[in-house]
Design brief:
With 290 residues, the protein is an alpha/beta fold. The protein has a single domain, classed as TIM Barrel (Alpha-Beta Barrel). It is built from 11 helices and 8 strands. An 8-stranded parallel beta sheet has the order 1-2-3-4-5-6-7-8. Helix 5 runs parallel beside helix 6 and helix 8 packs parallel to helix 9. The protein is globular. Bound molecules: zinc ion (2 copies). One zinc ion binds next to loops.
Amino acid sequence: MTTADRTARARARTREGSPQEARPPAPEPLPYPVLDSHTHLDIVSADGDDPVGQIAAANAVGVDRLVQVGVDVASSRWGVELANTQRAVVATVALHPNEAPRLSDLDGALKSIEELAEDPRVRGIGETGLDFFRTDENGLAAQERSFRAHIALAKRVGKALVIHDRDAHADILRVLDDEGAPETVVLHCFSGDAAFAAECCRRGYVLSFAGTVTFKNAPHLREAAALAPIGQILVETDAPYLTPMPHRGRPNASYLIPLTVRALAEARGVPLLEMCEAISANGERAFGPW
Ligand SMILES: [Zn+2]
Ligand SMILES: [Zn+2]
């Protein structure tokens, strides 16, 4: 082999190998199957990993059910189609709180979400809510109007409300109180402290913990996870974001859920099997059987 050949082969190897190398290795499988309560397979897929492969990779480590979450009309429609072809997937549909203020025709988009919400494979309305981190003053009115419309829709169709809450804890509760909360409320990527967790749990809401609960600088999330009743806890990736330790900063996907489940079991001081069984049952209660 010439030097040029060797160089060409090394280059090809690097090119093909790099996406794989960027992916963290699969963790040890769970002793009992759980779900990923919040993922964005379409965004992970945009990185070149097809959803069917992701579903199989998750299944191999004991993550046999996924909730595909919509953020706009296009991604919501994509999720409904996927959920109708993949038994492992159910969908939620919504306009993300960062998306709502950008729309020129918010009412038209809400109408499309409403139509999609009727599909039997749609099990939740979300992610909706409030995001005071990314939306400026001008967008807040549209954001809240959209949130209120999604709450009403969740009640009308009798499906779970999946909430995105970024720096907006008090206002999330204010709007929910004002509208009247639906029967099932899931706070996705729970980000509050113990006091906020206690308040949400008192109201019967479900706290869904993401990889952030494994971060060193997040003892408040482990406190929240420890005090919530075991029947009100879910686990999620929010992939491709929020990759759990020790892979923080690398791309996230549903097959990494076991790392977060182990952190939750540890924070609560319960056996891993018990944690998995609870998460599995809580998921079916919130989103219905797959
Ligand atoms: Zn979110
Ligand atoms: Zn999300």
